[in-house]
Specification:
Layout (H helix, E strand, L loop, with lengths): L13 E6 L13 E4 L2 E11 L3 E5 L5 E6 L3 E11 L4 H8 L2 E5 L2 E7 L8 E9 L15 E14 L11 E7 L31 E5 L17
Antiparallel strand pairs: 1-2, 1-9, 3-6, 4-5, 6-11, 7-8, 9-10, 10-11, 10-12
């Protein structure tokens, strides 16, 4: 069987799913899922610990011991820049307080000293281009699916209010995914099967070429419940 390859271009939607402190998806009345096109970039920055280095010289100045251990992956810092202000997305990412205005379910965010810690998963899809963009058997569009199953410890980056568009950037860090995230939380055809290995806490993030399309963006902004 031939491998799937191809160049990825642009982004489609961003999906955020509320997790508990252990990284398990929250379902039911207290759950939250946000699907939005209102972002301009996702910028991951993988973090590595340099391998141990041991060097000892002989009395004549030659190297007697010359050992460099392998670099070790620690986690990733992920910066998400939003061009649409979505109050539910702000709560999901930072734990900020949701401001309610009359019958509106959410009209803003308040950031303070006692905001609870927020845990969430982050996913996005990029369409492939070129000769390999479609499956030759089914004719379906192929996508590069990106997933960070457990992200937390977010902070709001500095921003500018000026004669131009406002963008808010959130920087967070990954940590060990929960086995309960599994093939993706909840039910539905948009979850990808068998891509995250959490048996031995091996996988922290991934990309995978798939014909599973991104979820549709809801007609309204804000969060919906995960079942």
């Amino acid at each position: 069987m031939a491998a799937w390859c191809g160049p990825a271009v642009q982004g489609t939607v961003l999906r955020l799913v509320k997790l508990d402190a252990c990284g398990a998806p929250v379902t039911g009345a207290s759950s939250a899922v946000v699907v939005t096109k209102g972002y301009t970039s996702i910028a991951p920055e993988p973090q590595y610990e340099d391998g141990d280095t041991f060097r000892t010289k002989t009395a004549s100045g030659e190297l007697c011991v010359n050992f460099v251990g392998p670099n070790v992956y620690a986690n990733s810092n992920v910066t998400v820049t939003m061009c649409v202000l979505d109050p539910d997305a702000g709560v999901l990412i930072t734990g900020s307080r949701l401001i309610l205005t009359n019958s509106v379910t959410g009209s803003g965010n308040a950031y303070g000293y006692n905001n609870p810690a927020a845990h969430f998963s982050l996913e996005t899809w990029q369409p492939l281009s070129g000769a390999g963009r479609c499956d030759p058997v089914t004719g379906l569009q192929r996508y590069v699916y990106w997933a960070w199953p457990h992200v937390f410890n977010a902070k709001v980056n500095s921003f500018s209010i000026e004669n131009g568009p406002l963008e808010l950037a959130f920087e967070a860090m990954t940590t060990y995914p929960s086995p309960l995230w599994g093939d993706g939380p909840g039910t539905g055809t948009s979850w990808l099967p068998g891509v995250i290995d959490t048996t031995n806490y091996i996988d922290d993030y991934l990309w995978n070429i798939t014909t599973t399309p991104p979820p549709s963006q809801p007609a309204i902004c804000g969060a919906f419940l995960l079942t």
